[in-house]
Design goal:
Layout: E1 3-8, E2 33-39, H1 46-59, H2 72-83, E3 89-95, E4 104-115, E5 121-131, E6 135-137, H3 140-150, E7 153-154, H4 156-171, E8 175-184, H5 185-188, E9 199-206, H6 207-210, H7 212-222
Parallel strand pairs: 4-7
Antiparallel strand pairs: 1-2, 2-3, 3-6, 4-5, 5-8, 8-9
Helix pairs in contact: 1-2, 3-4
The structure holds zinc ion.
Amino acid sequence: MSIAKLEYGKTGRDHRRTGPDAVPGLDGIPGGKRLRVVHDHEKVDLPGAESAVRDLLLALGRDPSSPHLADTPRRVAESLAEMLTPREFDLTTFPNDEHYDELVLARSIPVQSLCEHHMLPFTGVAHVGYLPGERILGLSKLARVVELFARDLQVQERLTVQVASWLQEHLAPKGVGVVIEAEHMCMSLRGVRAVGSRTITSSVHGVLREDARSRQEFFTLTRGA
Ligand SMILES: [Zn+2]
């Protein structure tokens, strides 16, 4: 999946903008910069998905015309569409005027995704941290970046790498690290039926990868010590 960039606010001039063009929460902050982030998946074909679910019910030996199941194909199609569509957001960044150079870490960001092998959910938390460079990020945006990649057919390893690489590319921090802990329904409800087992993946870049102390600090903090 690639992610489209729609627009950049003009650095240093946003604070003078007024009227319909004004950006709430960003106007008034000199040097505030925004990047509209949208996904570029094919739009979900809802009627197509609905009829496929009807066929699936038939193939599973169920009767989709029974009153109990009459609305199920539509509901399943709509819930899959929702789970595969991340919300658009503005990636707002600000100049790091205070030269803050310690780790910024958002712990326990919810992760909800669908595994691409079974189309069953995997859920858990992400810990996302970065060492600021020239710019810092609105904190809630770390959660939006996780969602951007999680609302897809995924494997946890790729999701972890995508979040870290995307932040490295778009925020250009001195370092970035992502740890995801998740339980996979395909492991807990079927197969080995390992209920409660969590899979942990990580991806680190820059100083958090190269400098042993920073790396250790990051992983210690993600464990909640
Ligand atoms: Zn799976």
